[in-house]
Amino acid sequence: MAAASRRRAGGAVAVAALLGVYLGSSNSRLALVELKAMDRKLELHRFMGSWYVLAHIPVKLVNEHLAHNAVETYSWDEKKQRIGVHYRFNEKALDGRINDSYQRGWVWNKDTNAEWRVSPKLPLLGYFFSYCGLKLPYIIVDCASDYSSAIVGYPSRTYLWILSRKPAVSDAEYQKLIEKSKELGYDEAKIRKVPQIPDAQIFEVPSS
């Protein structure tokens, strides 16, 4: 397989121009109650590491709707008390052009650790928006007790990421995650399954 099809431990969901994502989703699905993070306490250190994106409602501003081999990785910075996020995928094909995105995240709800705020690294601007206090909500709405799968959402339900520690799961496991997303108010018709290489290799996360 071409080197471009291999993935580094990559991170973070929901990477896009900060204002573009916010403004593009603030008025959607008003009929539904705003999506909330799960109440159960998340063990932050267990959530860190690499996750395969099995399915999503993508951020089109960063070509996520073209994603193959999507991998997200989270790493905790104890000194700075923040989360480093890297998101990597191949565009259009399993060996397509590699798309890398970076974010920084902060735990917003320290009682549960399931609600974060994130800020993307933008071309030329870097992490400018984070210094201005402009950060996007990032909510973990479900996580398996063994941390084998998780669902990350957005308050308006404009975006969704279904994550797994494995690049491929059984049809039954996949459908269970889809059904859980539907219970949370998501429209199944909008959910895109991400093509993945079943035996994909994950590499070290590049510095953000």
Essential attributes:
single chain, 208 residues, alpha+beta, Lipocalin, two-stranded parallel ribbon, 4 helices, 34% strand, globular, disordered N terminus
The poorly predicted ranges are 1-20, 22-30
Termini Cα gap? 26 Å
Helix coverage percent: 10-25%
Number of helices: 4
Roughly what is the average pLDDT, rounded to an integer? 85
Shape type: globular
Read across the widest sheet, the strand sequence of neighbours is: 2-3-4-5-6-7-8-9
Q: Which CATH class?
A: Mainly Beta
Task: Let me know the largest β-sheet.
Answer: 8 strands, antiparallel, barrel
User: What's the CATH architecture name?
Assistant: Beta Barrel
Domain Lipocalin/cytosolic fatty-acid binding: 42-196
Protein name: TIL protein
InterPro entries: Calycin (IPR012674), Lipocalin_Blc-like_dom (IPR047202), Lipocln_cytosolic_FA-bd_dom (IPR000566)
GO biological process, one term: response to stress
What does it look like?
The chain is α+β, with helices and mostly antiparallel strands and 208 residues long. It has a single domain, classed as Calycin beta-barrel core domain (Lipocalin). It has helices at residues 18-25, 44-47, 128-131, 171-183; strands at residues 7-8, 49-57, 67-77, 82-91, 98-107, 115-120, 136-143, 149-153, 160-164, 192-193, 202-203. The strands form two sheets. The chain has an eight-stranded antiparallel β-barrel with strand order 2-3-4-5-6-7-8-9. Strands 1-11 form a two-stranded parallel ribbon. It starts with 6 loop residues before the first strand and ends in a 5-residue tail after the last strand.
